[in-house]
Specification:
Layout (H helix, E strand, L loop, with lengths): L3 E6 L6 H14 L5 E4 L11 E9 L12 E10 L4 H4 L2 H9 L3 E3 L2 H8 L5 E3 L22 E4 L20 H29 L6 E4 L10 H17 L2 E4 L2 H10 L3 E4 L6 H4 L11 E2 L19 H14 L3
Parallel strand pairs: 1-2, 1-3, 3-4, 5-6, 7-8, 7-9, 9-10, 10-11
Helix pairs in contact: 1-6
Length: 319
């Protein structure tokens, strides 16, 4: 029996990067009528049997792992976040990974953790590296503008750390409040360095965020907003960001990109970057003053990975 194709959906996400990953997955499948499954509730899916591209960041609710037996997964461009390792790598979870190995890992940290559990893996890189510039802009149109997307946002305390939950008690909230002035100082310092660098750019500078208010936009509108952001990146002369899924599409579009690592020192964030440094330059804002004023060179290190996962995905979805 033919199984329908499926990609991950993010009905509760405020991060355009999630939708960008699903856009890339959908384009690689090249089929009509693709089903969208909520990443954080794959365990309760009992619809028709599907084949699912299991790419992206996993996961918000690790107790919802493993997925339903109605899903046949292809693990590719997969990231296991340290916050979810314990919940996902239970005996049952490990058995699920082994049943669907080898696991294509988006980063070397994920690869190392899974292999430590006896799971076969390989480094696949990210599906967003396959995005085509011609799908988003007229490639004959001259590039223009410097686009700055969510720079150093993680230097600021996240709002959820200031709310009482089962895992976030009053004592931790007080600690975060005490840390706020110092964190904000470091953030303003880093932004000042960035603005000094931008003062030497002749192009118009546009500031954007990869994060949006999900309460104000429907999921359909959030997907549309992610497409608009892809169009802007595809047409830019230079993109500066601290978001992986702004940087990787730029690599695919051959848009020069600088990735600022300020605020990504914690393992939960740093782990996501391991292996991606071959695709784009990763620097701290302190290094901006030392940069050559010329645009960073675009790289083509991603092309062998794109060729490999295109073939693998095509084979997986053959009827």
């Amino acid at each position: 029996m033919t199984r329908k194709a499926a990609v991950l959906a993010y009905p509760n996400s405020n991060n355009l990067g999630d939708y960008i990953q699903s856009i890339a997955a959908k384009q690689l499948i090249c089929k009509e009528d693709i089903i969208r499954l909520d990443r954080d509730h794959l365990n309760i899916y009992f619809g028709e049997r599907v084949k699912l591209l299991m790419n992206g960041w996993f996961m918000e609710s690790s107790t919802h792992w493993p997925p339903s037996n109605q899903i046949t997964p292809l693990f590719i461009s997969f990231h296991l976040n340290p916050t979810a390792e314990k919940g996902m790598l239970t005996q049952k979870g490990i058995a699920y990974f082994k049943a669907h190995e080898p696991i294509g890992c988006r980063d070397l940290h994920t690869q190392r953790i899974l292999e430590s559990k006896g799971i076969k893996t390989y480094f696949s890189a990210c599906l967003t590296l396959s995005l085509k510039r011609a799908d988003f802009v007229n490639i004959k149109k001259k590039r223009k503008g410097v686009v700055v997307i969510s720079p150093m946002e993680r230097l600021l305390p996240e709002l959820q750390t200031l709310s009482i939950t089962k895992s976030n008690g009053l004592s931790n909230i007080l600690i975060q409040i005490l840390k706020f002035p110092l964190k904000y100082f470091y953030y303003r310092k880093a932004i000042s360095r960035l603005k000094r660098y931008l003062d030497h750019q002749e192009d118009q500078v546009v500031w954007l965020s990869q994060l949006i208010d999900r309460k104000k936009l429907s999921e359909k509108e959030r997907i549309a907003a992610s497409i608009i952001q892809l169009e802007i990146m595809a047409n830019a002369r230079l993109v500066i960001t601290s978001r992986i899924h702004s940087a990787l599409p730029c690599v695919a579009f051959e848009t020069p990109v600088l990735f600022l690592s300020d605020g990504l020192e914690h393992l939960n964030q740093k782990s996501r970057l391991e292996g991606l440094e071959e695709f784009f330059p990763i620097i701290n804002s302190r290094e901006l003053s030392q940069l050559d004023p010329k645009l960073p060179k675009t790289r083509k290190a991603h092309l062998p990975y794109v060729k490999k996962f295109r073939k693998e995905i095509s084979t997986f979805f053959e009827d």
